[in-house]
Structures are given as C-alpha cells and as structure tokens.
Design a protein that fits this description.
Blueprint: H1 23-30, E1 34-38, H2 54-61, H3 71-78, H4 84-101, H5 103-109, H6 111-117, E2 124-127, H7 133-137, E3 141-143, E4 158-161, H8 176-188, H9 190-201, E5 203-207, H10 214-230, E6 235-238, H11 241-249, E7 253-256, H12 259-272, H13 280-302, H14 311-330, H15 340-359, H16 363-381, H17 406-415, H18 421-432
Parallel strand pairs: 1-2, 1-5, 2-4, 3-4, 5-6, 6-7
Length: 448
C-alpha cells in the first residue's frame, strides 16, 4: 500500500514520505500480531521537539562533544562527577518537565503515541524510552520490573520498558554499567523471558532508532540472536534512505517514512477495510458533546419540572448522551472506541439492558440508556452519514419521530398529553416527593 508523497518541506511534513507497506504486514498489524519496538526518535529526542538532544546536553556539561563517546559511555563519564548519578537523573527529569511545560513541545513529542493510541490492534509495545508517554497518551500499562508481570494479562495494552522508567528512578538504564546489568537481566530474568516470547510470537517493527545509535546496536544484538533462531522477519521504519540501506544489510526490511506517518498509512487502510473508525469520528463526537452540553445546561431554564414532568426523561436522556460522548472523548487513545465491532456489541448489550428496564418500568433508566445508545451509534456512523446526521437532543416516551429541538419536544408534549401514561404518572409521583421540585436539577448518574 502507498499514497502520494507530501510536497510540504516543513520539519514535520518533510519526513512524510511515500511509502510501500507490504500487504502481509498490514494484515499482521490488523490481526494483533505486531509489536512495536520504539526508541527515542519517536519521543523527546525527535529533532522537531528541542534544538538539542540529550546526548549533546550531557556532553556539553563535561566538555565531551568531540570525544565520540557512545551514549552509554558518555553517561558513564558523566556519572564519574561527584553525585553524578543524581545529577544525571535530575537532568533527565528536567528535560521531560521542560517538554511537558510547553503544550506545543509535548504535542510534538507525543504525536506517535497518540497516533498509535487509536490503532486498537496494537496491544504490545517494547520501548527503551524512559518517559511515560505511552502510559499517558496510548493508555498502555507499564511493565518495568519482574514483579509487574503478574498483571500482564490484566492489561488491555502493555508497554514493556526494558530501560526503566522516569517514574521509578532506580530502574533507569543509561550508563555502560547499566547496559551490562540490563543485558544480564534480559538474558536471565522474567522480563527477558517475556521479551523472548514476544519475539517468538510477534512480528517486530522498530521505530525511532538510528542505525548508528549505540542504543539500537545493543538492543538489536540481543533481539537478532532470538530472531535468527525463530526465523521471524523484523521491519524498521525510518525516514532516512542511507539508514534504510544499513538496516537492510543488517537483515531488517526498511519502510522509508516517518513513524507517525507510517501509522497513518496503516490506519487509512484499516478504515478502507472498515476495520477501524477514522480519527475524524472523535472530532464529530466532540463537537456533538459540546452541543448537547449547552442544550442540557439550558434545559432547566426553558421550562419548569412541574409544568412539564416529561422533561425529567429528556434530562436523563441527555445525561446518557453526555456520559457516552464524554467517555468516548476521555478514552480516545485507548482505541476501544475506534473498534467498530466493539461499539456494535456495546449497542446490542445496552439495548438488551434497556429492554429489561422497560419491563421493570424504570423509565428514567430507559431514557438514559436510549441517550447512551444514540451517542454510541452517532460515533459509529457520523463519518459515513450525510451532513444532517446528528443526535436528537430531546426524548419523550411515545414519540414516533426524533425530537431534534426543544420546540419539537414541546410541540409533541402539547399535542400528545397522554402519549405514555405510565411514564407521566411516574414522573408526577417523583416530583410530588420533592420539597421544591422546580429547584431540583434532574440528573441521572453514570450507572444503571
């Protein structure tokens, strides 16, 4: 699969290169058979984030820019300073805080993580990065220590952090001594055994590494030993043609494009096959959420509860819509709401629950669930229907047509005062139990 080359020459777009992705690799990704192995190039060390990388920052501190140290060698030299290890960890943490304190920088450092987030077939990630961006922006559960692995099966998406995490400073792998200990741990301990299992059962795609990167050399040396035995083909995504040739000579299949753009290409193909919702669906759903929120806030100002008891059900219905859309927005990067089959299954499950609530005459729950279902269906279909496709903003029992406005709602109520006697009777009975019913804002909690 390929698309046309991007002609923009800005720092972001110039690496979005026309790329051919083998059909078999697309199929493996969509079948949950791929693990991404990611390096610093997809995070804070991308040249689009800061004007100096961490290696250069440390080298300047000890006047070693001309020494040609490898990354672990440089970190080892730095740690020879008094309190060097503590100072190194402070520099690492300070770098992340700098990036995170500027929304623009953080957005640049997390483009890959967010793009991967909505690609729900990706369940396993291995990274040498210390940051927490896969946790924060891809909803991945971190696994750093052997003891973490007891919870491997509990996680929906996992990130195996073989070089430690900034959240646990004692685990950070940076120096030559750290790398030696890390290699031993990966060869002998549980996390190393899990890594070997992943390599035995998954196709690995490397992203964010340079062929000259000593970090990659260390990792790939370990990985290649296992791959040679298991005969699994590995891929690497890189925007640099000279690096691609070196990767190819090392036995990997290179895909020449930017890592984030690679994910875009894969997702475009998945959308074409109707296996994935486009990310645009979230924008439409977010827009609809804002509309319904405004309408919901104004509802109590438009009519009193005692004048129109049926408004109770519209309020509960709107709560259902809001809660569904809020959850969709909040969990965007988990990928769970990018999965068409999962959403269809949820709609069916809620419809069955709603049927039970209707039999029990729990009408506020029925209205709430109707709103929740409508929101799920909107998110599922909003990119594929016409411009007029939207969620009805109001609800009334007995209405044959959708109620898109307050005027539609009031017109139906006035013309059909007894459209559904049982629900009207229940609403009046509820209001009669309140001391000041017109001062009560009707709200349905997010459970049923």
């Amino acid at each position: 699969m390929s698309i046309h080359e991007n002609n923009c020459d800005c720092v972001i777009c110039k690496t979005k290169i026309d790329a051919h992705i083998p059909d078999e690799l697309i199929e493996e990704i969509l079948s949950e058979k791929v693990t991404f192995f990611t390096g610093a190039g997809i995070s804070t060390e991308s040249p689009s984030v800061l004007n100096i990388n961490f290696y250069e920052e440390v080298a300047r501190e000890i006047d070693a820019l001309d020494k040609n140290y490898s990354f672990p060698e440089l970190m080892q030299e730095f740690c020879k300073k008094p309190n060097g290890r503590i100072k190194l960890l402070q520099m690492i943490r300070s770098r992340f805080r700098t990036v995170d304190s500027f929304p623009e920088l953080q957005a640049m450092a997390t483009t890959f993580h967010k793009e991967l987030g909505t690609l729900f077939p990706i369940k396993n990630i291995v990274t040498t990065n210390w940051d927490t961006y896969f946790e924060d922006f891809s909803h991945a559960t971190p696994f750093v220590l052997d003891s973490d692995l007891a919870f491997w099966e509990v996680a929906e998406r996992r990130v195996l952090k073989i070089h430690g995490s900034i959240d646990n400073l004692s685990t950070v792998v940076a120096t030559e001594d750290d790398y030696t200990e890390c290699t031993k741990r990966l060869n002998e301990k549980l996390i190393g055994g899990l890594l070997k299992t992943i390599l035995a059962t998954q196709t690995v795609i490397f992203v964010g590494y340079s062929m000259r990167d000593s970090d990659f050399q260390e990792i790939y040396g370990l990985v290649k030993t296992q791959m040679d035995l298991l005969h699994r083909q590995a891929y690497v995504v890189t925007p640099f043609e000279d690096e691609a040739k070196r990767f190819e000579d090392a036995g990997l299949i290179p895909i020449i494009t930017d890592g984030t753009y690679f994910l875009e290409l894969v997702k475009n193909e998945a959308v074409t096959q109707e296996l994935l919702l486009p990310d645009l669906a979230y924008e439409f759903s977010s827009y609809m959420l804002d509309e319904i929120e405004d309408e919901h806030i104004e509802l109590s100002n438009k009519i009193s509860n005692t004048d129109c008891p049926e408004v109770i059900y519209s309020a509960c219905y709107q709560d259902g819509v809001l809660h569904a859309l809020q959850r969709i927005r909040k969990n965007k990067y988990s990928g769970e709401y990018s999965h068409p089959c999962r959403i269809e299954s949820l709609i069916g499950e809620y419809a069955r629950i709603q049927t039970g609530k209707r039999k029990e005459k729990r009408y506020t729950d029925v209205a709430y669930i109707e709103g929740y279902i409508r929101a799920l269906f909107f998110h599922l279909q909003n990119c594929f229907e016409g411009d007029e496709f939207e969620i009805p903003k109001y609800f009334a029992f007995g209405a044959k047509n959708d109620l898109y406005s307050f005027e539609d709602f009031m017109e139906f109520i006035k013309e059909n005062p007894e459209a559904h006697k049982a629900s009207l009777k229940q609403a009046k009975r509820y209001l009669s139990t309140l001391h000041e019913p017109d001062k009560v804002v009707i709200h349905h909690p997010p459970w049923i």
